[in-house]
Write a structure and sequence with these properties.
Elements (H helix, E strand, L loop, with lengths): L3 E12 L5 E7 L3 E7 L18 E7 L7 E10 L8 H17 L7 H15 L11 H15 L13 E5 L4 E2 L11 E4 H8 L13 H17 L7 H4 L5
Parallel strand pairs: 3-5
Antiparallel strand pairs: 1-2, 1-4, 2-3, 4-5, 6-7, 6-8
Length: about 240
């Protein structure tokens, strides 16, 4: 079987030996590929001196059906995101995105639209800033990523505009509760502006001007990701703090 090629972002890596690495790559056409890169840490070779976490590159791999690890044959670095190394908030958000991609997607299950959204968010969070330049909307990029992740993994909640200041979200059903709807599970009280901010991602509502709407929307989706996973990833609290049950 010939080697396959794709572009991907490194979402995890481990040192396998002094010269080799095992990595998880989120590929645009291949999905998540876990592989062994023999000799990746040598200065000269087919791997550009190693595969850095949260870098984007072109890679080649021999996929072995039924085997846990593919054999990686090459890595050509395409893009780094410099501010992820200097901005702790951007760094934490990027690690969270990489973590939940690895947790919510099955290996070798491609999601090119989610990959594009992931790269867009990394570029927004990781773009270098000139003197006096305001930081790009990292919170908005993170929100769009979380919404895409839930949609691509089959867990996008059913949301609609709410004609009231507040609504209730039923995480066990992934929907907003009707005013007279009884439910035995938890009910999360959310502001209508929070729902509108999420709907604005796909143009289904105008972006609310209320301060804090994007942050509240991010926290709501993160709490729902936690509910879907059944546990809180360790990368979540550094980004969102303590989330409501």
């Amino acid at each position: 079987m010939p080697a396959v090629h794709d572009q991907g972002v490194c979402i995890r890596h481990w040192d396998f030996s002094e010269t080799s690495q095992t990595v998880s790559l989120f590929g645009r056409s291949l999905g998540i590929v876990r592989g062994l890169a023999k000799g990746a840490r040598r200065e000269r070779g087919a791997f550009d001196g190693g595969i850095d976490l949260l870098s984007r590159g072109e890679f080649g791999a021999f996929l072995k059906r039924g085997k846990e690890l593919a054999t990686l044959t090459e890595w050509d670095l395409l893009e780094l995101y410099p501010r992820l190394r200097t901005d702790i908030g951007a760094n934490r958000a990027a690690f969270y995105m990489a973590d939940v991609v690895g947790r919510m997607l099955e290996p070798e299950d491609p999601h090119p639209a989610l990959f594009d959204r992931f790269v867009e968010a990394l570029r927004t969070l990781g773009a270098p800033l000139g003197a006096g330049e305001p930081a790009p909307d990292g919170a908005g990029a993170l929100l769009a990523f979380q919404w895409a992740l839930l949609g691509e993994s089959g867990y996008r909640p059913g949301l609609h505009a709410v004609d009231a200041p507040f609504a209730e979200f039923l995480p066990q059903e992934g929907t907003l509760a009707a005013p007279d709807r009884a439910s035995d599970g938890p009910r999360w009280k959310v502001r209508s502006s929070t729902v509108d901010r999420i709907l604005a991602i796909d143009g289904a509502a105008p972006v609310p001007g209320e301060p804090g709407a994007t942050d509240r929307a991010n926290r709501l989706l993160a709490a729902y990701v936690r509910h879907v996973l059944g546990a809180e990833p360790p990368t979540m609290a550094p980004v969102f703090g303590a989330l409501s049950a």
